[in-house]
Amino acid sequence: MRTSKEYREKILSMRPNVYMNGKLVGRDHPDFEPGIRTLALTYDLVDDPEYADLLTATSHLSGEKINRFTHMHQSTDDLLKKQEMTRKLCLVCGRCIQRCMGIDAMNGLSLVTKDIDNAKGTNYHERFLKYLRFFQDNDLVGNAAQSDVKGDRNLRPHQQADPDLYLHIVERREDGIVVRGAKAHNSIAAYADELIVIPTRALTKEEGDWAVAFAIQADAPGIKLISLPHNHRKRKHLKAPIEDYGTMHALTVFDNVFVPWDRVFMNGETEFAGQLASQFATYHRHSYTGCKPALSDIFLGATALMAEYNGIGKASHVRDKLAELITVGELVYGAGIAASVKGFKSASGTFAPDVVFTNVGRYHAGVNIYHEFETLADIAGGLAATLPYEEDFYSPDTKDDLEKYIMRKSDVCAENQHRAYRLVENLIASSTGAATGISGIHGGGSPVMEKIAIMSKYDIQARKNVVKYLAGIKD
Amino acid sequence: MRTSKEYREKILSMRPNVYMNGKLVGRDHPDFEPGIRTLALTYDLVDDPEYADLLTATSHLSGEKINRFTHMHQSTDDLLKKQEMTRKLCLVCGRCIQRCMGIDAMNGLSLVTKDIDNAKGTNYHERFLKYLRFFQDNDLVGNAAQSDVKGDRNLRPHQQADPDLYLHIVERREDGIVVRGAKAHNSIAAYADELIVIPTRALTKEEGDWAVAFAIQADAPGIKLISLPHNHRKRKHLKAPIEDYGTMHALTVFDNVFVPWDRVFMNGETEFAGQLASQFATYHRHSYTGCKPALSDIFLGATALMAEYNGIGKASHVRDKLAELITVGELVYGAGIAASVKGFKSASGTFAPDVVFTNVGRYHAGVNIYHEFETLADIAGGLAATLPYEEDFYSPDTKDDLEKYIMRKSDVCAENQHRAYRLVENLIASSTGAATGISGIHGGGSPVMEKIAIMSKYDIQARKNVVKYLAGIKD
Amino acid sequence: MRTSKEYREKILSMRPNVYMNGKLVGRDHPDFEPGIRTLALTYDLVDDPEYADLLTATSHLSGEKINRFTHMHQSTDDLLKKQEMTRKLCLVCGRCIQRCMGIDAMNGLSLVTKDIDNAKGTNYHERFLKYLRFFQDNDLVGNAAQSDVKGDRNLRPHQQADPDLYLHIVERREDGIVVRGAKAHNSIAAYADELIVIPTRALTKEEGDWAVAFAIQADAPGIKLISLPHNHRKRKHLKAPIEDYGTMHALTVFDNVFVPWDRVFMNGETEFAGQLASQFATYHRHSYTGCKPALSDIFLGATALMAEYNGIGKASHVRDKLAELITVGELVYGAGIAASVKGFKSASGTFAPDVVFTNVGRYHAGVNIYHEFETLADIAGGLAATLPYEEDFYSPDTKDDLEKYIMRKSDVCAENQHRAYRLVENLIASSTGAATGISGIHGGGSPVMEKIAIMSKYDIQARKNVVKYLAGIKD
Amino acid sequence: MRTSKEYREKILSMRPNVYMNGKLVGRDHPDFEPGIRTLALTYDLVDDPEYADLLTATSHLSGEKINRFTHMHQSTDDLLKKQEMTRKLCLVCGRCIQRCMGIDAMNGLSLVTKDIDNAKGTNYHERFLKYLRFFQDNDLVGNAAQSDVKGDRNLRPHQQADPDLYLHIVERREDGIVVRGAKAHNSIAAYADELIVIPTRALTKEEGDWAVAFAIQADAPGIKLISLPHNHRKRKHLKAPIEDYGTMHALTVFDNVFVPWDRVFMNGETEFAGQLASQFATYHRHSYTGCKPALSDIFLGATALMAEYNGIGKASHVRDKLAELITVGELVYGAGIAASVKGFKSASGTFAPDVVFTNVGRYHAGVNIYHEFETLADIAGGLAATLPYEEDFYSPDTKDDLEKYIMRKSDVCAENQHRAYRLVENLIASSTGAATGISGIHGGGSPVMEKIAIMSKYDIQARKNVVKYLAGIKD
């Protein structure tokens, strides 16, 4: 397995193709550090006794010990461990651990390439396994590039004014394909080794050029990453883990990018585009049943801490709100466990979570995220929004005043009161915190997408039949 | 195992001690039939291939095949099967299957009697096992009598104006104890073999007389069952399973009832009263993670059927509401699965579900039940409330009019439209349906009780510590 | 103005055309009494100093003092008084006062007949005023018959398999029209003087026969009222106002009913059908901003009383829930006040409430009704559903037990505890209570209808323009 | 009336006592400009025909035309105009208009000083009127300084470890008083003429030193304003009103500040501290019934615009969500109208809104604000959170890519799509937007405070009496 040092060196050695704030920047730009540091955790903790069992697995290909973030799930137990690993790692960085997306896409490809082969006599799965072996051996970080920019939502891919609004094949050559388009909301793309590209939706027959899946190095020719960092404002005095970790999103532009055949995993099989899109979504939403409870843990802990510092830790309405935060997180986590238990072994041997339980879990997380913000804002009070600049707490002109007037419970020192409010500001009153709310809705698919997934799988007719039986209706 | 015929004969042979509508009635009174018929299902279906594996188990005492409703859970798998059995049986009778409560109380006793013995050197567990063997061998139906009438909720048991407002021991004799008081909301007590009596709450040292648990025949001397049936109005023409099954609740009065020692499982151990109360509650709330999803199935099916009959089955807002009903039921069911997976083996060997997952599941069911009523009422329309009497559909004066004007989709015959609305009336516009809503909140403990259970077990401090770490607070 | 005695005598003198439970019954059938008694309040209280100013008005036609339930609103003040009168009268009968519907339909006709005349040169308004004079002079009770049975909701009136599924004109004669069809959910029709019939929806050009409005005696030839009473179970011992009042709904069948021209107020003007339907709806929803707060008052009072009797009146969570009940009722009432203040004078001189405020008020009531049930059920506890029969409290066998075990706060006597629970049973655990929930959603138009009304009137473009201005978008 | 130029000159002439980011800054620091520009609107629009009638009033003192932001309300009509003015001005600056707080405090003082005088024979009201005349004649901007920093919320003011945690009188001199303490969340304090200081809560007898109210110049000796700007990130290319306006909050430190007697309006009258606190709160919450609907207008417009640009403007679920946004805003606005209509004339002649309607309105706004964020986030999609920097849209390296891939509906140009998303980013994905959510809960008092206000005024006993009457309970 790779060390975090090796991961970092590799990233720094890549061709500069990241654009930020109007400039081409190197991957050594300081805005990358919080993201790289987050990923580094997934390497550094493999030997930590608290995480080792969760963070490693045995490759079903090589039989070797590998990082679980490169593993194809083989069983319920693998899914339970992935879910638990996700929750625990998110608590270390105080946010999304980010590396899940790549392996969720890989598991989706594992399953669907086999199904395509079975149906069409192609050999995508063999190609995929070869690539997987490379991915595992090198312990790579993959970005999942799924969301097309989508243009007019009322039109299908092939109906758009500009065909590039969904990424598509523009040329099929002897040695591979050439693609054009863009993928949006690509977290970690700027510090990933590889981009795993898959379709964003079901496609119709005339959309063969859009039915494409492949893997490509993140700095391959023609790839441009227009990036936006989501890090907390650097602190000068109050250093803390919450500011150490962060993320960066990219709009990834594919400007006639060449992909060799051994990295192409779908090429025109439109009837499988929807399955691949939704299989990735299922794996990724299952990851959310791990990470969203971690976010609930943090909101719960912060709410409880602020209540304690404010002297209202035992108030009835506070305990009521804490209990509601718990139910949100644990219903989501419980749904993920149920999805693992009720999962299924696919033709490829890869194990997949149950679609309905996965989606009700992710759905519940999505429709409650803003309520979690609201609860913390409610208990923390207005100071979350009006906390003076950090510097004011250290300037001789204002330091004494601020240390005097930030005091709440008298046995908690001013610095800790300040630290607690600075964290709350990070969580709910910063642009990064605000973005967490939005990704809490949309990441991995918004609530409306989960409803669609649920409705497509749930046996409503069976329930109608029960009711007809109870009513004595025979027909 | 007993047959339903044997169960029925036994019930009919009992001493008349049921009072209803101002009279002492025999158990052959027609209002008992819907309840007895519901219980009969639990006997009749043991050989049905669809239910056999769920409805039977192997006794850990005798090694013999027994009805799962008399089984002590030994593993995650037992809990998963109990949960699934509950959901499936509720779909046969269209309501609560009722027999869960007795076995939930028995499992609670199994676990807690052992813990008492371990702590105090008593021998309750041995007594209990002997009783259990009798219970299993005779395939008995037990009512769980837990809720005291409780008097002034602001006062503790020993502070009440009348000490009998919580059931308590009034005499300890050489051969047993004598108890007095009453237990409320005792579903099935009127057609159960046995009453399993346990405390309703945690007790303080001065409340030794209230710390009592025992089993007693439902027609033992001194027991009076003041009963209220909850059955649907008998139909003359539109016979249907929804009206075949029903329930009956009792206020069970214990007027100086004698209980021999071999049926006494707690006698003054106040420090275990709370544990027994909550251990039963945990088992029973876990049963709710099976039965409430069944009720959601029925509401979902009824809503979908009414939408179809009204011609709006494909409307966007209808599909949206169906998806929300699904998420309610499956989040609850998923929490029950997670509780089974994350359960624990107690000192007694009996397996218990995880407290937090069980309670978040039951909680979510409780806070959504009225929303399920609302959704069905919304889609079914006002006719649920204004449907003319059944007789009007068969009187020559009005039959033609009603068959003409009840028509919706023209390919569904008038009788089926009528049957569907009659069922909806049963579900949401009848006194029995209304009571289902109330028991959906309170049965097994209301949402406020689940919050208390969650808060008592959840490690909030661990979440605070995560947040302190992230904020850089060391203390 | 008429006395309640005169009203009652008139009703009893009508031709028997009410069918119930398979039989033709006279209006002296005891099931009518609770409804008739409710209407009688609107006559009896006109001289009561507490109600006189609200319950009477000055006719703009005759200049005479009339019952406000026959008045055409002339001003904001009239609307405010109508709203307040409605709330106060509902508190006397503990439910819907019922007489609002007729006058809401009359106000709608007043406004729209004038608009039709202005557009088409007809003389409906003159006819209407003549009829109104008759209506006021005789102080009549009108039922508003609007909701057609509607058949397949996916088809328009003229597309239905049976054209009668929406009431329509089958013949135009020299002396009047002949209509056929049925109107559903006709509360009070069985004890009203007159039926005021109006369209249920907007119509298209080919639906001229369905564009019809008229007034007719409730016992006119060809009219059949298939009725369902919604009264509380008669009590033998615990007499109380809650059981004195009730209602009755009818499916009103029009079997080739002749209507003379001077009672016809729309005859084929399809372009005004939607306006008339929605103008009635607006008036009626405005009435809901009076009656629904009254229901909230009752749920609030009952919740507060049960909390007090249970000894938890001061508990933090109880006070929290009471405050939420208050916000529901007063937001609805406040919206009704705003609708009155921001109303408009129509061409006819009749004053109408603002559509948006009226509809947001009614909407908020509709989406909260089941939450009000839930709150009362939550605080009252399970006894609401398992309260033994009244008779058991008076039988020598069980009286002492029940009086002993119903005790809560020791300073409230058993009978009052019993009375309080009997009321709660009526409100939330009876078929009549359950129907109140359903009519809380659908009466006057369900939430989805209010959203449609709001969207049809609200100036969304103006808000888009504000946002474009703020964003600097010029186009 | 003052011009905006005069206001600005006055502000710039003040003694520098504002600290920001560790430094003492002049009021000409660029971070002040968005706030000053917002206030300037209240001067500039007095002659605009669209605003003149709302923005001016006739002084009841001088009979002269004055800015309504200096007016004592005399009638329902004044309150209705204040509410409408607030909503309309907030739509010009796209946020809080800010000047309401000072006049809300002044109205509160007008009412309560008279009540104190009536009760205690003091002459505060005369002093106040003199000060008011000065305030009106000079058309001043007042900041309302109410919220103390409050220390341990579990302790009363006089119990705090540091008595200064609530502002209090430290010395009473012949010529005035000296005060010490701090007031938090003081929006506009840094660019206001005057600070209007009032108590934050009810006080007990031993807290006479904390019962203090006064007015003071914002740059008086001893006053230190530690400030935090909440402005949108300056744009280089996409200039737009949304970035022109902003606000600044201050922690206002009173370090032994002298206040002459003629500016002291409460001095130890502890029994009126709660009334003054809540009377200001009532006026200020009534202002929220104007400004929060404006924020709803903006969220509604932005949601509708994004839906249109994304091509889903007519989708059923979108229209459903727009309708819900409308109901939130108009229920709040309607409650404000009702509060104005049902207000009362106080002893001072100043007119005050009804407490219950005001508070249910503010409450409803507070509990829905995060839901409004959620709705916009839901419809706008993830790009709100991942929009690249503005500069990237203008750099030659990335401009073409971004203009190509931001395209949605093809008839909306790339710049407008960009402008729309930039605005949405400002609203929900920026630190300033996030702070708006928090102030949406807490500004003017959080939902828990409104519930307390409601419960203190609502006649629950009257509702209990109704229910007792209905139940037949006499006692």
TrEMBL record, chains A, B, C, D:
Keywords on record: FAD, Flavoprotein, Isomerase, Oxidoreductase
Protein name in the entry: 4-hydroxybutyryl-CoA dehydratase / vinylacetyl-CoA-Delta-isomerase
The HpaB/PvcC/4-BUDH N-terminal domain, residue ranges: 3-266
Molecular function as annotated in GO: isomerase activity; oxidoreductase activity, acting on the CH-CH group of donors
Source organism, top-level taxon: Bacteria
Record has Mitochondrion as a keyword: no
Domain HpaB/PvcC/4-BUDH C-terminal: 273-472
Stored InterPro entries: Acyl-CoA_Oxase/DH_mid-dom_sf, AcylCo_DH-like_C, AcylCoA_DH/oxidase_NM_dom_sf, HpaB/PvcC/4-BUDH, HpaB/PvcC/4-BUDH_C, HpaB/PvcC/4-BUDH_N
Family matches, as Gene3D superfamilies: 4-hydroxybutyryl-coa dehydratase, domain 1, Butyryl-CoA Dehydrogenase, subunit A, domain 2, Butyryl-CoA Dehydrogenase, subunit A, domain 3
